[in-house]
Amino acid sequence: MPEDIKIGVLAEARYMAQNQPSGLISALKNLGHTVDVIDPQTHLFPLGDHIIFEGFDLIVGRGRSWGLLCLLGWAERSGVATINKRAAISAVHNKADMAVALAAAGVPTPRTFLGATDRLALEIQNDQYPLILKPIFGDNCRGLQVVNTPDEMASIDWPEPFALAQVYKPTDGYDLKLYGIGSEIWTVRKPSPFNPRAESDRDRSGLETLTPELEDLGRRCGEIFGLDLFGVDCIQTAEGTLVIEVNDYPNYTSVPDADQRLAAYAVERAGRLRA
């Protein structure tokens, strides 16, 4: 194992109380490596001063604010390796770009429309409702709305000029999350925010057996966007497994030894680049 690896964790403050990147930071320190946490909102960054990233073997980014993306790009221009790369995070930050890429790659998704809400109301047929309306730059389910009719769509107070509208699909009350660390994939069942399970149904949340089909699907989604650390939100329907969206660097809830696996991946990447 490489010794004295120096890793910067570039993270927005809102994530520091979550499982990640705190778990990664602890695991790296337990291995004896140096970790500096960089919060984009509490540091001053004089432009042109490339010494800011000097000495780092790797920068790990957790977040997707414009400030964080700018600093990731800055680190890359300074010759420092990053996980995930700025371009990879940007590719899933914009949900419209993400949806276009998934469709172009032939990944199975619910039927999706892009447009201003008044055009969506006029042109989407009644039999496509209900729809889930999504902001282009939303995350963590923020801003999602279920729209049941064209009239409801026409009257909605939407704060953006465009929206994604995705056909709502009923499920058994659970979503599937495919977690990826490099080429390793795990499947976790989670309660759905839009398809509540029956009260009499026992809780079936947690780690699931990974099938070859789901493993392939997870890897494909990571490769499409060039992500090293990622999560793929899926639903299981009568049409099969459908991908809802792809996210960068999730919390890895229920993934066994996630902190240690993340640390090992980061150290291996940093050591390989240093060699």
The largest pleated sheet is described as:
5 strands, antiparallel
Determine the number of helices (DSSP H or I, runs of at least 4 residues).
Answer: 8
The fold-level CATH name of the largest domain is Rossmann fold
CATH architecture of the largest domain: 3-Layer(aba) Sandwich
What is the SS-derived class? alpha+beta
SSE string:
EHEEHEHHEHEEHEEEEHEEH
Determine and state the CATH class of the largest domain. Alpha Beta
Would you summarize the structure shown here?
This protein has 275 residues and is an alpha+beta fold. It has helices at 19-30, 66-77, 86-93, 95-104, 117-123, 150-155, 212-225, 258-274, and strands spanning 6-11, 34-38, 58-62, 82-83, 112-115, 131-134, 145-147, 163-167, 174-181, 184-191, 206-208, 229-237, 240-248.
Overview of this structure, please?
This protein has 275 residues and is an alpha+beta fold. It folds into three domains: 6-84 and 256-274, Rossmann fold; 112-167, Dna Ligase, domain 1 (2-Layer Sandwich), CATH 3.30.1490; 170-248, 2-Layer Sandwich (D-amino Acid Aminotransferase, Chain A, domain 1). Helices cover 31% and strands 26% of the residues. The chain contains eight helices and 13 strands. The strands form three sheets. Strands 11-10-9-12-13 form a five-stranded antiparallel sheet. A four-stranded parallel sheet has the order 2-1-3-4, with helices on both faces. α1 crosses α8 and α2 packs antiparallel against α3 (86-93). The mean pLDDT is 92.
Q: What structural keywords apply?
A:
4-stranded parallel beta sheet; single chain; 5-stranded antiparallel beta sheet; Rossmann fold; 8 helices; alpha+beta; 275 residues
